[in-house]
Design a protein that fits this description.
Length: 614
Amino acid sequence: MTLFSVSIATVIVWVGVLLLPLTLTVARAFGNFSRARARAWGAPITEAAPRPRGRGLRWWLAPLSDARAWLDLLFETVFALPIRLLTFSVSVAWFAGGLGGITHFFWGAFVPDGGGNTVDWVVAWVTNSPVTDLGFAAEATFQFVLGIILLLTFPFVLHAMALLEIVAIRAALSHDVESAGAAQNPVDRRNSPAAALPVPGSPSRPTVTETAPSAKPEASPNPTTLSQIAGGEGWIWLISVFVGVALSAISWPVTTVLYDVPTVFAMLIALALSTALVLAVRWPVPAIGLGLVAQVASILLTADVSGAVRPFTVTSLLALVFLHLIIGLRHSWVHLVALWTGSALIGVLALVLPHAGGLAGAFANVITTAAVAAGAGAIGVIGNLLIRGRRQLESERELSAAELAKRQELEERNRIAQELNDVVAHSMSVISVQATTAKYRLPGLDERSLGEFDSMASSARQALTEMRGLLAILRGGRDADLAPQPTVEDIPALVDVTRGSGAVVDLDFPAEPLSLSPTTSLTAFRVVQESLSNALRHAAGAPVAVTVTALGTRLEISVLNGEPDGSVAGGHSHLGGGFGIRGMRERVEALGGSLQVGPTERRGFEVRASLPTD
């Protein structure tokens, strides 16, 4: 018979073990449902990615190793289920009370008289007079008004109960115990072939170069379950509230029945002990003060009781232990020492003051309370140190991953700089050399042609200078040459250079010097420069009008070109991909300005920018 009982118990245990993965799977589904609800309310909770579970028995047992599933099971059973039961009970009672109130006219007459209606008791309590029968009409009217109030406030009650659940979900489930797969580095760079810029006139240069694959940054390890659960402030809040509510529900009747403390005082002591646990999560000093005051009040009110556990009652001892644990886990050891010292002094004073119990039992109670509280505090301090160590280790890993990503980004920029130097800078150097040596290689050129070649050589040298500065910035910026940037005052010279290419450009520029910030002045020059370049490229032969005007605190810039001349080659060029306009817009909007571009009624094109002068 004994062997049969053991066999039955073993079968029950194994059935429970086999059903545990199913329980965790259901808890995980309810946890995902809770996260979805919280996201619908706007809570910043990421969606939990499913973990790979394998096949066969491994698929069935995979939830046992899923830390998030255990976390969901704890939350759904300990916190979410009571909150939802409370929500259901309050909602049903509230709606039923409202519905019953407005229909009291129909069913109230069939209720047997039980010694007075609700309105009779309310009137008697308000007027401090004996209960008198006010009749069915008064009761029905009172119930109807009360029902209307309940039904009108029913949506607000539902909203408040739902908000309570969302707060609990956000506190418990907003911290990811695991990432989807491996926690990837924020910068996940993949190698792509470096496309060299096509340069007209140099077809022999390759347009694509092969690059060796670079090392991909390793994924940073996932944070541990301990650091996520114990280090998450939301879970500490939930646990402290749960323990506080449970302790209050137990302490109040126990203190009243076993220690013969008045109900009101027992209630206040229970609420003070529970409130101290909740305050200890964020505010240690008020929590310590309130907890010690509640302990003193409990000792004074139970001093006349003999034959019971004292001076620290059972519930006071539990509250003190949990308070030491939370203080040690969340705050500095100085607060923990202050709390333990205060509780020990209270215990010593309780031994000195007159009391009904024996000294030996009280002394053992004080020693036991101090030892258990010290142990709980030590556990909290050790947990705090472990959590901080894990966090520092995770922070160091994140910093290492960020440094690796930054180094890879710098390597990528160096590669791009090398490509630009090999292709663009080479081609511009060839143009500069050819334009400079044209008068020696091509004798008999007239003065106008020589001027054109000199202008080409000057533009090529300027482009090379700016290209070198860009390459220096791409390589890190520390070795970039320091040179003055162009300003709005260089716009007339820019227009003169553009006229040298044969374009007809009219300039309306203020005679007075413009007082602009360096950034605004540079942006104004770049806008005009890019607009003139676009006009020459897309509307060759068309007249261009450049207008720069200072209106109060704004600088207005307009570059307007007419209809392209169809007789000029390249008058309708479509070179470029719109990056120039995009760059102008980014520059202008970064300063708080505005940029308007588009065709005109006369088949021209206009760029209009408005920049702040300060």
